[in-house]
Amino acid sequence: MNQLILHHYPQSPFAEKARLMLGLKGLSWHSVMIPPVMPKPDLTALTGGYRRTPVLQIGADIYCDTALIAQRLEREKAIPALFPEGQEAVAAALAQFGDQTLFQHSIAINFQPHALEARFAGMPPEVIKGFLKDRQAMFSSGTASRLETDVALAQWPVLMSRLETQLERNGEYLLGEEPSIADLAWYHPLWFMAANSAVSVMLEDYPAVRAWMARIHDFGSGASVRMEAEEAIRIARDSEPEPLPEDGFVSTRGLNLGQEVTVRAVDYGSDPVAGRLVHEELDEIVIAREDERAGLVHVHFPRVGYRVDVVGAAEKD
């Protein structure tokens, strides 16, 4: 089995989701710390400009977005399943709701002035300003807009009451007695809330939710060993990308293999990544790119939430 290398930082909600995936599956992995804000030169050497956290590296294959990372880890170790047999669509749909709707509520609540003050207590003002400027840039393009704080505050009790009722009536996890990707996707926005003393009180009235969070926390994060970024880049340079399927090419936009394309997220963090299209299938896009430090890498993106364009075409849309 190839080395699993996770590029992340401790406070990232989506990185916590990925760490829990590794813990649930009992996998060993290498941990590469990345900056929480741009620039991220070592990560860029691997991804070509994808800025979101986390990123999974396996040799010279780079996997972007936790939705695709979950699929890749499922291939790495099938049991316990992140997408239980017969409930794949339900698990994926619930996970998407957690990653988008629940996450946006958590962000809006955590970005209130008093909540930001608590989260960044003791940090220099320039660090706080730099973080806020970076996050503003992340949302400056794409289709996502920041949820208004008063709307998030009004809707949060509704979301939590629904979750409380579900957990009281339907077993220990969202899909019953076994955990799935849905639980991890709903957990990480709440984990982000719980980590902030200014807003963690908003979880106190939901004992079933807190017990569920404790169960998920107990999955841990697997066995990790620290790795420096330069070593991860060397591994990419000294490796060859995994062989791609010889059939199954499916292009929803009539593209051809070998075309120079860009891939970008459609919601936020929409920085384009340029490369040569080497594979498309139902739920994955793969481009090849050359980097002077990392060599030839294949960068993988999920289909849902991303768009692929011939170089120069996206700017004309």
From TrEMBL:
Pfam families: GST_C_2 (PF13410), GST_N_3 (PF13417). Residues 2-81 form the GST N-terminal domain. Residues 114-239 form the GST C-terminal domain. It comes from the Bacteria. PROSITE patterns: GST_CTER, GST_NTER. GO terms for molecular function: transferase activity. Keywords: Transferase. The keyword Ribonucleoprotein does not apply. InterPro entries: Glutathione-S-Trfase_C-like, Glutathione-S-Trfase_C_sf, Glutathione_S-Trfase_N, Thioredoxin-like_sf. This is Glutathione S-transferase.
